[in-house]
Design goal:
The complex is a heterodimer of chains A (about 230) and B (about 120). By secondary structure, chain A is an alpha/beta fold. Chain A is built from 9 helices and 9 strands. Chain B has about 120 residues and is mainly alpha-helical. Classes of the chains: A alpha/beta (about 230), B mainly alpha (about 120). At the A-B interface, helix 6 and helix 8 of A face helix 1, helix 2 and helix 3 of B.
Chain lengths: ~230, ~120
């Protein structure tokens, strides 16, 4: 199976602080992967490195064989932890922006989803509620036929109904040619939709395992194992 | 179908059990076409790969057969289903005795109590 993401001896330092410390990791195609770790463990830094928003201090990160750049942006669909749309944009403008930027963006699909969510295309972004903003951005990101989806905290701060909708959207839209990486610390909520989990701890990979292997071996949910590994 | 999961066991094993139950109770009638992997995964809110794994294992057990273009069907073999029902019944009984044992009640006592309980409505 092809590797969509490969990190080799990856290091990212901010001053004296090692946000990512000599990290090695490979991800296969066709998986839904949870990137789990407590606050400050390096989740967002890793995702930003994969998107070329940060450059490694040393080591290498490759996506589909290439270092982050124009080629990788074509195949990576990224949901950042913060919104980047200008407040005055209308939903319609955001759609146009995506259609303009990404060849693999399925405008019809995105529109269908927005209709089912009762999001008005004429509404200004700033008038949407927090949950609706999250849903809309996820719709945009998941309407691309990407090879790698990097979702940074897609379910943080939304109500349970929105969370269910988001998880459903992920299951419904990911394809066998794509890998979805979801970073979160709300493990319990997403455990059932994951193939594999990566535990990050202080910038290093603590463990990589399949959800069912963890349950089989430890007879506990991933959530419980996580609490044990990261007990304060 | 109402899907429920506990925290102790692999999800695919729990999916298998619940689908087996569905076949025995006729929720998935014999000879009927099964919903697609994705549809079932969405209904159970699980990863499609996990659902696929559960269905393949059940297919190995002979509960499903596939027609190349038409998809996956529930077996028409009554013998297989009867055997499955017996297996599930055995499991239920074992769980009953285990529960009683935790209460300090022997199998014999438990069987007696079960017999007595038959009279009670």
């Amino acid at each position: 199976m092809a590797n969509i993401l490969e990190c080799t001896n990856l290091v990212k330092r901010f001053g004296h602080f090692h946000a990512i410390a000599d990290l090695n990791l490979t991800l296969e195609t066709g998986k839904v992967v949870g990137l789990l770790g407590p606050n400050g463990s390096g989740k967002t830094t890793l995702i930003k490195l994969a998107n070329g928003l940060l450059t490694p201090t040393s080591g290498e990160i490759r996506i589909d064989g290439n270092p982050p750049g124009i080629e990788t942006k074509r195949v990576v669909s990224y949901l950042p932890d913060k919104t980047y749309f200008d407040q005055w944009l209308k939903v319609r403008d955001c759609l146009a922006l995506f259609a303009d930027f990404y060849e693999d963006f399925d405008l019809a699909k995105a529109r269908d989803m927005l209709v089912s969510l009762k999001i008005d295309e004429g509404a200004a972004f700033r008038t949407l509620s927090k949950g609706t903003k999250e849903k809309m951005q996820l719709v945009l990101v998941m309407s691309r036929a990407a090879k790698l989806y990097l979702l940074d905290e897609p379910i943080g701060g939304v109500d349970p109904a929105v969370r269910d909708y988001i998880l459903n959207t992920i299951i419904r839209n990911y394809n066998e040619e794509g890998t979805v990486v979801i970073s979160t610390h709300l493990i319990y909520d997403i455990e059932k939709i994951l193939d594999e989990v990566i535990f990050l701890k202080e910038g290093l990979v603590e463990r990589v395992a399949s959800v069912d292997d963890i349950r089989e071996k430890e007879q506990k949910s991933v959530d419980e194992v996580f609490r044990e590994v990261f007990r304060c | 179908m109402k899907w429920q999961f506990n925290d102790q066991r692999p999800i695919y094993a729990q999916l298998m059990e619940q689908i087996q139950f569905g076949i025995v109770t006729g929720e998935y009638p014999h000879g009927s076409n099964m919903p697609s992997v994705r549809a079932l995964a969405l209904e159970a809110e699980v990863n499609p790969n996990t659902m696929q794994k559960a269905l393949s294992e059940l297919e190995t057990q002979g509960l499903f057969y596939t027609r190349r273009t038409a998809g996956r069907f529930v077996t028409e073999d009554e013998k297989v289903v009867r055997k499955l029902r017996e297996q599930l019944a055995e499991k239920t009984i074992r769980a009953f005795f285990e529960g009683m044992e935790r209460l300090g009640i022997s199998k014999k006592e438990a069987a007696g109590m079960l017999e007595a309980a038959k009279e009670v409505k």
